[in-house]
Every structure is written in C-alpha cells, then in structure tokens.
Write a structure and sequence with these properties.
This protein has helices at 50-67, 88-98; strands spanning 3-5, 22-25, 28-34, 75-82, 105-110, 121-128. It is α+β, with helices and mostly antiparallel strands. A 6-stranded mixed beta sheet has the order 1-2-3-6-4-5, with helices on one face. Helix 1 (50-67) runs parallel beside helix 2 (88-98).
C-alpha cells in the first residue's frame, strides 16, 4: 500500500526530520498527535485550559482532514492524552462542538506531561477516506 505525506497549506508542519502532520496510506489517514499550536506555527499555544486547547486541536484536525479530501465525519479513532484526567469533561465539551451522531472510537489517557508544561491536551486520530 503506497503511503504519502499530505500537504496541508493552512497548518504549519514540524521542522523536517521530526514528524509529518499527516500520512495517507490507501484509504486511511493517520494524523499525528496535535497540540493547540496556532495554525501558522510557533511555540505559543492557543488557550490556557483543556476546553480552549481542545477546540484549537479539533480545528487543526479539521483542516488536516479537509486538505486530504475528507472531513471530521471520516474520523474513526482518536486517542486523547491529558495531563489531568479530572478535567476530561472540558475535553468532551469541546468534542461535542465538532462531532455529532456516532462519535469515533476513543481512548483517553492521562500522562505525566506532554510537549511542555503549558500543553494540557494532545490528540491523535485515524480517518477512513474510503467509500461512504
């Protein structure tokens, strides 16, 4: 199965040699863990709580899916990493603003830390872009 990096013109990529935001392998789209960075890149984050960061992350994932020819409705699996599982309701609140109907299969994992002390949430996803 061929795999290709998906170019996302409106979401900044990591520096070369680190990771790709998105790889397409056949009908599957693998989106790397996203944190609440601005679309144009940089080190600062959008939002200082789980709700605000999760909204920015899902906005990033939406743009990535659309660049690959899909939508959030194509997400079949997500893994959500949080540094404080007691605030999971804020993640769910933001998720309900982006997803309706049958939600993707999901796993929630509490971790000690993420990319930096200000990073509260990271989300990775898999989408299926095959026949509807």
């Amino acid at each position: 199965m061929p795999r290709t990096k998906v170019a996302i013109p409106n979401v900044a990529e990591a520096d070369p040699g680190l990771w790709s935001n998105c790889i397409r392998a056949g009908d599957l789209l693998f989106i790397s863990g996203q944190v609440a960075r601005p679309f144009e890149g940089g080190r600062t984050l959008v939002g200082n709580n789980e709700y605000e960061q999760t909204k920015q992350i899902f906005s990033r994932i939406k743009r990535i899916c659309e660049a690959a020819g899909g939508s959030l409705e194509d997400i079949v699996k997500m893994t959500i990493f949080v540094v404080n599982i007691k605030n999971n309701t804020e993640v769910w609140r933001a998720r309900r603003e982006f997803f309706t109907g049958d939600f993707p299969a999901s796993t929630l994992v509490e971790v000690r830390s993420l990319a930096g002390p200000e990073t509260l949430v990271e989300i990775e996803t898999v989408a299926y872009l095959g026949k509807k």
